[in-house]
Amino acid sequence: MALQKKMTSRQIQAVETRNKIYNTAFNLMSKKGFNNITIEDISKKAGVSVGAFYHYFKSKDEILFEVYQRADNFFRDNVKNKLKSENSLDQIVEYFRYYARYSEQTKIGFTIHLYNTENKFFLKKGRLMQAILNDIIQEGQRKNEITKDKSSEEIVDLLFLVARGVIFDWGLKDGKYKLEEKMAELFKLQVQIYKDKSSESAE
Length: 203
Description:
By secondary structure, this protein is mainly α. Helix content is 67%, strand content 0%. It has 10 helices and no strands. It has helices spanning 9-32, 39-46, 50-56, 60-78, 88-105, 108-114, 128-142, 152-172, 179-190, 198-202. Helix 5 runs antiparallel to helix 7 (128-142) and helix 6 crosses helix 8. The chain is elongated.
């Protein structure tokens, strides 16, 4: 096995600068919202030139894209093939516990600004986060735990619709309640809609 090459001091500095720009943009978005800041604002606050910003990010949208990329990475590292529940319906509840947990770890100010009708990133298809949930649902349909009356893709869309509504309400109420507990409480009821009833009627 080949040894992983150590990063040079220049490469380390490049990573640090990129993260500094990202974190600065994230903090500014948390306070002012995505549409109310400019690349010049981010660069000035991060202490870099506008040219340096464009060296690491092609646009302001690319920073927002990375926000979603990091969320996908969280699900890849913590959720994919790691859920403890055996039944697929329980796995869906567990999945959305992680979804809520990740949102709680994010600054509530950022979450409030993120959940608005101008943000079309929520509609982006093919994300890893969606694919992981889709796999859970497909496996549940194969095991006759989840209804086949709707496609797995349709169920994914409907479940995320509910989850976004919960997080919007949480932000609207300034995070006054524990999001993970509320999400789990609601989804324990929600998943019953998609329970396969054919096995019950056959008994």
